[in-house]
Structure formats: structure tokens, C-alpha cells
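Loading example: each entry is read as four labelled lines plus one structure line.
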Amino acid sequence: MAAEALARTLDTAAALCAQRGARLTPQRRRVLEILCRTERPLGAYEILDQLREGSRALAPPTVYRALDFLLEQGLAHRLESQHAFIGCRHPGCAHQSQFLICARCGRVIELSDAGVSERLAMAARARGFEAERPVVELIGICAGCASAEPAPDCPS
Amino acid sequence: MAAEALARTLDTAAALCAQRGARLTPQRRRVLEILCRTERPLGAYEILDQLREGSRALAPPTVYRALDFLLEQGLAHRLESQHAFIGCRHPGCAHQSQFLICARCGRVIELSDAGVSERLAMAARARGFEAERPVVELIGICAGCASAEPAPDCPS
DNA sequence: ACGAGATTGAAACATTATAACGTTTCCAGG
DNA sequence: CCTGGAAACGTTATAATGTTTCAATCTCGT
């Protein structure tokens, strides 16, 4: 994420937390910044490594606690299929997200497609199932990678 | 899964593998049986414990290899959000599945809702994304648990 | 300032998954 | 039969991910 966009995202996050009475402490803010600065999803231990760069020795719970907070606040998302985390691209918009995860370059597109959400809700309700936490992740090849590389079955 | 249904499922699996030239070895069959006998999804190490019951000392790769085979053949599914595995309820039907996972009782409903799949495909294609492996899991409360228990905000 | 509750630090531990290497089993072709 | 290559399996070790626990510290309303 570019510097200005990053600053904007962090400001939005701070505003949201203030408004909700949640505390975006320096540590949590730092984790959010690391997440948003990076295009790819990051594993908890990758985040930990970056947090430690100021030579401080931090333990895993530090990161997981910050992540828990960010997830609760909708400022970050967990990608279950990747065991990794990513900064939310549309913080504040209360929505259900779907993720398109490129298996080649690792980049992630975050959608909130109402049609998908509705269909899922319908399918669940039809079985008397009350969905609380949807996990919708499509692993595949993004447009950039598809055009940049030969098809998997291409000779040569 | 009931005994007869289990036997039928294992026969179907064997037939499918034979037809494909894949080898459903005793070990793989045993893992499939363990998976199908159980209502809930099982973690790899839970399967391992059951495999070991005949006092043999097996190591994790044994289970993971059997699971890889079963996943490839569409005889089992991995539930990413649970780090667990479940026997396929409709082996042979080439389909994309969605899973409704009850957070209370742990039971799983496997769907293959065409409407959901199509909507997802559309959303992906609109971004030039070619989906290869969909992960669609809804965590929530199943009908049985919802009726059996008081609402979460119910006093008493 | 004070105390309740939230946050953080730190060590140990638990769980899930894979790497690496060698051995056995299967089976098609000679 | 028998044998050579591939697939399956066994075993040890280790990587990667996530949690429990307890103590120390900070924050904020009163």
C-alpha cells in the first residue's frame, strides 16, 4: 500500500476505534501498519519478525493479541486457507468479505459481493442454519499472473 | 454414519478408485472409514490416534499422506477453518462444496449449491480471476442446536 | 491518588504440518 | 519367473502455527 493510502487507512482505523471506545494502542497500530504496508498476506510469525526489528524480543502472544483486536474491529482479516492475515481494504464498511487469493503472486483481492452473500445466506437459511462467520476464499490465478505467464498446458 | 451407509460409502469409494486406476490401499481405506464413521470433522492427530488403536506406532506423515490421497480423489474434504477433515457425503459427484459447520455441536452439512457456485464464479471472472480451489465454509448454529438451546441473549 | 479492568511481557507448552531419507510393496515387461 | 522402476509406506526430526499461564504495567474514571 502506498504511503498516503497507508496514512489514510491508519487514520480511518483510529477514528473508528475512537468512535467505538476501542483502544488502538501503539502496538496494535504498528501491527496494522505492517499488515497494510504489505501487499501479500502475512503469517503471524512474519509480523512478529517485523515487530522485532527494533531489536526488542517479543513473544508470539503479543502478535496474536494485536491480531485478535484488529480482527474484532474489522481492521484485518484472517485468511484461513493461508494461515495468514491481511489488512482490511474497506475498514468501516460493515460487510461480509470474500477473498480472491492468487496462488502465483500471493496477492489478494477483497470483495464484498452482495449477490454471493445473499446466496449463501439463502442456502444456509433453507437448512435452518444460522451463519455467524462466513469463510469464503477462492484460490486461483489473478488476471496479472494469467496474462504474464503461459498457460499451464502450453507447450514450450 | 450408520453401518450400512458406511459400507455403501466404502464400496462406492473403492469402485471410483478402481475406475480411475487409483489405489485405495487398506491404510487409506481405514482412514476413510474413520472419517466417515464419525459425524464430526476429525483433526489429523485424532485420526492418527484411532489408527494407532491396534497398538501400532504410526507417525504423522502416514495420516497426512492418506488424507492427501483422499482429498485428491474427492473422498474427503479439508475444513480450512477447523484444521480438520471430513468424509465426503457425495463421493463421485463432481461438484464444488460448501460447508455449514455448527459451532455448538460440531456437525457439518455439506452442500453443493449451484447458485452459490455460479455467483462466486461470476464475481471472480468479473475481476479476471480464475478460481481453482474454492473454500466456502459458514460457521454458525445448526437447526438442531438452535431449537435445543436458549438464545444466546436469553436471560436465565 | 486510587482501584478495577485492560494491556503487555515472558516462558513454556500444545497443536498442526512437512522435510528428508530409507525401505517395502506392487506390477508391467522381458 | 524375475527384475527394475514407481508408488506407497515407515521413521526421525523439525518447521510452522497457536495457546496457556502468571506476573507486571498501564489507563481511565472517580
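Residues 4 and 139 of chain B are 29 Å apart (CA to CA).
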